[in-house]
Automatic annotation (TrEMBL):
InterPro entries: AlphaKG_dependent_hydroxylases, GBBH-like_N, GBBH-like_N_sf, TauD-like_sf, TauD/TfdA-like, Trimethyllysine_dOase. Pathway: Amine and polyamine biosynthesis; carnitine biosynthesis. Pfam families: GBBH-like_N, TauD. This is Trimethyllysine dioxygenase, mitochondrial. Residues 53-130 form the Gamma-butyrobetaine hydroxylase-like N-terminal domain.
Length: 418
């Protein structure tokens, strides 16, 4: 199949199937149930048929017809000399594999297929392993299960908060917490002691903390101690943080330790939900937001703090192979001068940006919460936008950023798909 056709196929399956899908979940982002439906299940039968074709091995097993390129098969040999099963690393030098290699001999037993290569080396492939790792068995499983939400969807899901004691002592509580975090992009823990230390202890159960120029744990008020509007009492419109990093921080944690005054509620908006709306309504605007590179910038010059950060990338970051949005950079405060695209595209980009903003600002998409001492909020900063209402009085907010890979690692170690 040509590469162009492959992308066509992938994109085809991303097209919103407006009639077929459940109304409250996304078309291009599949729901947990749909994913379950697609997941590879263990074969009912062990019978296997194979055929050596010109370029590949055709294998039919467990209800799947699969194709494996010979060079792929040689590269994926897990014999002791080709693969170190202690480190799970490849020993074989792929560059030494003859690109047109073909097996000289083939045999099967109940669970395996054995290929003998021209130099006499024998590879054993477990049939279930092949099925699980085949393109045909894997392709529909590539997306992260997630439920995109507006305020109603999230509220009626009644996602329970985790409880501090259980969270710290019981892996199952952590697993439930991370499960809902992965699905919704936000999750809460309640009953946490209102201190920076407890907040740090809590987050370290989930991940390594990502240290930035704001420090490791931060604890701030409206004292303008840093050159950023976050350190004032002003309202902040919905945004993602650290859009000025080449890799924006994956997760943000907030714990309001104190507030003696009014206002200061936190606003949360699922960016993936709005991106999906743009994709459904005006695909060409989605395309512009996904292709036009935009700079974000953080220039700070106060007392000891001298920082100049630049991050460049589209507002909607999509995987090129399936067009799935995996990260949004949306911060109108920190967006830098646009000088890398010609004026006619600039105008079209503003139109697209306006459509996304209109979606993000629809009141039905806004989830408002008042953070209180004891209630810790985790936000997927690649997906869910946050903002705040202006406030009066003393308000102290602590928190940190987390490294995304470590959060996902913890989720996987507990048996979640991440
Ligand atoms: C969270 N903390 C107060 C430490 C930093 C705030 C960073 C604010 C910046 N404008 C941004 O959106 O990234
Ligand atoms: O004060 C708040 O609630 C949040 C401010 C903010 O956007 C941030 O610190 O990233
Ligand atoms: Fe922020």
């Amino acid at each position: 199949m040509s590469l162009a056709r492959m992308f066509c196929r992938l994109n085809g399956y991303l097209q919103p199937k407006s009639k077929a899908r459940a109304p409250l979940v996304s078309g291009f982002i599949r729901t947990q149930n749909e994913v379950r439906h697609w997941q590879y299940t263990a074969p009912q039968t062990t019978s296997c048929h194979w055929q050596l074709q010109e370029e590949c091995l055709e294998l039919s097993y467990g209800g799947l017809v699969m194709h494996f390129a010979y060079v792929w098969l040689r590269d994926h040999c897990h014999s002791a000399s080709c693969f170190n099963s202690k480190t799970n690393q490849r020993n074989l030098d792929t560059a030494n594999v003859e690109l047109n290699i073909r097996p000289a001999n083939t045999r099967v037993d109940d669970e395996n297929i054995f290929l003998t290569w021209p130099d006499g080396h024998v590879t054993r492939y477990n049939l279930s392993w092949l099925a699980q790792n085949s393109y045909e068995g894997q392709k529909q499983n590539a997306m992260q299960p997630r439920i995109i939400w507006n305020s109603d969807i999230y509220t009626s899901a009644k996602v329970p908060s985790a409880n501090w004691d259980k969270f710290m002592s019981c892996d199952d509580e952590l697993k439930k917490f991370l499960g809902s975090f992965l699905l919704y992009g936000i999750a809460f823990v309640e009953g946490v002691p209102p201190t920076v230390e407890a907040t740090e202890t809590l987050t370290q159960r989930v991940s390594l903390i990502r240290e930035t120029m704001y420090g490791k744990m931060w604890n701030f008020t409206s004292d303008f101690s840093r050159g950023d509007t976050a350190y004032t009492k002003l309202a902040l419109d919905r945004h993602t943080d650290t859009s000025y990093f080449q890799e924006p921080c994956g997760i943000q944690v907030f714990h309001c330790l104190r507030h003696e005054g009014t206002g200061g509620r936190t606003l949360l908006v699922d960016g993936f939900y709005s991106a999906d709306k743009v994709l459904q309504k005006t695909p060409k605007n989605f395309e512009l937001l996904a292709r036009v590179p935009i700079k974000h910038e953080y220039i700070e010059n106060v007392s000891d703090h001298r920082n100049h950060m630049i991050g460049i990338g589209p507002v909607l970051n999509v995987y090129p192979w399936n067009n799935e949005v995996y990260m949004i950079r949306y911060n109108n405060y920190d967006r830098a001068v646009i000088n890398t695209i010609p004026h006619d595209i600039v105008k079209r980009w503003y139109v697209a940006h306006r459509e996304l903003t209109t979606e993000l600002r629809k009141p039905e998409n806004e989830l408002w919460v008042k953070l209180k001492p004891g209630k810790v909020l985790f936000i997927d900063n690649w997906r869910v936008m946050h903002g705040r209402e202006s406030f009066t009085g003393l308000r102290q907010l602590c928190g940190c950023y987390l490294t995304r890979d470590d959060v996902l690692n913890t989720a996987r170690s507990l048996g979640l798909q991440a």
